[in-house]
Design brief:
By secondary structure, this protein is α+β, with helices and mostly antiparallel strands. The protein has 2 domains: 4-53 and 278-420, no CATH class; 101-236, no CATH class. The protein has helices at residues 4-16, 18-51, 85-94, 135-138, 151-155, 165-171, 217-223, 243-257, 273-316, 318-326, 331-371, 385-412, 415-420; strands at residues 60-65, 83-84, 98-106, 117-119, 122-124, 127-131, 141-146, 160-164, 182-185, 188-198, 212-216, 229-230, 232-237, 268-272. The strands form 2 sheets. Strands 1, 3, 4, 5, 6, 7, 8, 9, 10, 11, 13 and 14 form a 12-stranded mixed β-sheet that branches. A two-stranded antiparallel ribbon has the order 2-12. The radius of gyration is 34 Å and the shape is elongated.
């Protein structure tokens, strides 16, 4: 039942010590405000990173060759070697843990200063990738028009190309339809069959995807005289199989097939994306833990401030408490009164800090959306509502404990001694 007299007493007590009350409440306000802001900022960073990886197959690995670092089986150190087409079937047949294999070969461009793609009087320097259709299952793109590569393109070594949206913007006019048109790549004509835009902004292998061109893997090998060379492999593990297991087996098999020393860790380089993903998640977990440590420390400082001011309040009201005790007030009523003041002050300050922090995060999020910028470093700063409410409840409970010690001190004073207090 709502006790109006009780709350009037609380307001009167807090009003009597305006400045001290304000400063103490500000400590609590600032503590929960900073905790929520830091949690929201951390989530904004996390959302941006994971959003850029959400469509990428995180259970994947990439391997490529480098010069050997050890002499082996009659070959000298520093030998250069390449993966071959028959490695594709060897991997499929000998490592059952593999789900998808996507070989890739590049035909220059991208970082080159020489324009390698021409259409009429328009030219550009773009990355040209020879791919299998399976590549789009590992590092998918959004098809804006037309289609992606298929196995018939590989089988018949068709001269077809799927171009990025930036390639389209450079080589074609605004109102031109690129489908069915021809572009010349390193002197050879290819027909455009599709236009795409990248889905993953934070992961890229082989250059800027928006400025890339996909052509059939077999076509690139034959057209540009690469023989049966494979540039690198993108491989995914089957469900519930750690990528590390597949990684070890792939390296072991490829070393054996290409007569590389078993302990030569330089000859076959690679990236285990699952491992990198776990590291990123661990980094953000560490950030969250650090935020909670700092935030809880700040909150505790505010709660201790509440306890201190309540001790001062009890000392200043010693005589008043003595009169209440003399008139029959029970220890329980005195304790309830002191704790109620502490909880009230903590709740009001905490609620204001929480509300302002959530409002500020929402304001930042709306500003980011209104700007229309594709921000890859910060996206949708937010705080889980359950976490925010839990933090406020913990703060209120802490406020109750903060008032417990001053309340016990209040009832420990004998009424006769309290009445004599000046």
């Amino acid at each position: 039942m709502f006790d109006l007299d009780k709350w009037q007493e609380i307001f009167a007590a807090l009003k009597k010590n305006k400045m001290r009350t304000f400063l103490t409440a500000f400590g609590v306000f600032w503590g929960i405000f900073m905790l929520v802001i830091m949690l929201g900022s951390g989530r904004g960073l996390q959302n941006a990173v994971f959003d850029g990886m959400k469509d990428f197959a995180t259970n994947s690995l990439f391997v490529w060759t480098q010069p050997t670092s050890e002499p082996y089986d009659g070959f000298p150190r520093g030998r250069r070697f390449y993966f071959r087409n028959d490695d594709i079937e060897a991997l499929r047949n000998n490592i059952p843990e593999i789900d998808i294999i996507a070989p890739r070969l590049q035909a220059g461009g991208g970082t080159s200063s020489t324009d390698n793609v021409i259409r009429g009087i328009k030219t550009g320097s773009f990355t040209v990738n020879g791919d299998y259709p399976e590549w789009n299952l590992i590092d998918p793109v959004k098809m804006l028009d037309g289609r992606f590569l298929n196995h018939l393109d590989l089988l018949h070594r068709r001269k077809v190309a799927v171009i990025g949206d930036m390639v389209k913007n450079i080589l074609f006019g605004k109102d031109e339809d690129p489908l069915g048109e021809y572009i010349r790549i390193n002197g050879v004509y290819f027909q455009v069959v599709g236009v795409f835009s990248p889905l993953n902004s934070n992961i890229g292998f082989g250059g800027d995807k928006a400025q890339s061109i996909f052509i059939p893997f077999t076509t690139l090998q034959q057209t540009y005289n690469y023989g049966n060379i494979v540039g690198w492999f993108a491989i995914t593990a089957r469900e519930d199989i750690p990528v590390g297991i597949v990684d070890d087996k792939v390296r072991e098999l490829l070393k054996r097939r290409h007569r590389v020393a078993p302990h030569d860790n330089h000859a076959i380089a690679g990236v285990n994306l699952e491992e990198q993903f776990i590291r990123v998640k661990g980094l953000f977990l560490g950030i969250d833990i650090l935020v909670w440590i700092v935030g809880i420390g700040t909150l505790l400082a505010g709660v201790i401030g509440i306890s201190n001011i309540m001790l001062i309040v009890v000392k200043e009201r010693t005589k008043e408490i003595g009169i209440q005790r003399a008139l029959g007030a029970t220890p329980r009523k005195i304790i309830s009164q002191i704790i109620s003041e502490s909880v009230f002050l903590t709740t009001i300050a905490g609620y204001m800090g929480l509300s302002l922090a959530v409002f500020l995060l929402e304001l930042i999020n709306r500003a980011l959306l209104a700007s229309g910028a594709d921000n890859q470093a910060f996206k949708n700063p937010e705080v889980d509502l359950n976490i925010a409410i839990a933090a406020l409840i913990i703060l209120i409970v802490a406020g109750a404990f903060a008032g417990l010690m001053p309340a016990n001190r209040a009832i420990s004073i004998k009424p006769i001694d309290a009445l004599r207090d000046e």
